[in-house]
Write a structure and sequence with these properties.
Layout: H1 5-22, E1 35-41, H2 56-66, E2 71-75, H3 83-97, E3 101-105, H4 108-112, H5 117-133, E4 137-141, H6 151-168, E5 171-173, H7 199-214
Parallel strand pairs: 1-2, 1-3, 3-4, 4-5
Helix pairs in contact: 2-7, 3-5, 5-6
């Protein structure tokens, strides 16, 4: 029976996270852990095409639990989310949850739709400002897009993450899919979304930049 306890704990915490995002729990629950992490992302963080618990955010929660870090993870990621959608949703989320750390993993859908880099940059800047205003540390996660979108657009899009990180003095994961993007065997049939076995690698890309924020 003891072997089931960690899974039951993770299931409980996951359920509490969902209720928090939906607004069904009081704000005080967000403070029951020493730190809380809010992940605002798109399908890469929302376990698209995966079984529940296989995505990098779920693996992060398990890693924190196994490390005895008293930290809660609230995953507010939505498949198809853009920076404009995140800009709209983030203020209410940080006001309700009051996270210590906000991880922003967005932008890929902006680029896939050919949206203005300048507009995406301004949306990011607004989200970062909202998170800082709520006294949260921010971890920005960078993304690259295929070169077929044009060299200039591709370079400008990728560069905006480093520009914002330097300007806003926040931590940056340069590229979420580093070591994964060039391996077709790590992607689902759509060639966009990583398979389950790629998500531990994704977490390995995030963890080194997240750890210093957890220690603050």
């Amino acid at each position: 029976m003891l072997s089931f306890l960690p899974n039951r704990r993770l299931m409980f915490r996951a359920a509490m996270s969902i209720l928090l995002v939906l607004g069904f729990l009081p704000q005080t629950y967000a403070h029951s852990a020493s730190k809380s992490i809010l992940v605002l992302g798109d399908s890469l963080s929302a376990e698209y095409g995966l079984s529940r618990g296989q995505g990098w955010v779920s693996l992060l929660e398990k890693k924190l639990a196994d490390s005895s870090m008293n930290t809660s993870v609230i995953n507010a990621s939505i498949s198809g989310e853009t920076t404009s959608g995140g800009r709209v949703r983030l203020p209410a989320l940080v006001n309700r949850i009051k996270p210590d750390i906000v991880i922003i993993e967005l932008g890929g859908n902006d680029a896939l739709r050919g949206l203005s880099v300048a507009a995406s940059e301004e949306n990011f800047r607004t989200m970062i400002t909202a998170a800082k205003k709520a006294n949260a540390e921010v971890l920005l996660i960078g993304m690259k897009i295929p070169p077929n979108y044009g060299k200039e657009y591709t370079q400008r899009f990728f560069a905006l993450y480093a520009t914002l990180a330097k300007e806003q003095k926040i931590r940056l994961v340069p590229f979420l899919l580093e070591g994964i993007a060039d391996r077709d065997d790590l992607f689902q049939a759509d060639k966009i979304h990583p398979i389950a076995s790629a998500h531990p690698l994704i977490l390995n890309n995030v963890w080194p930049q997240l750890t210093p924020l957890l220690k603050k």
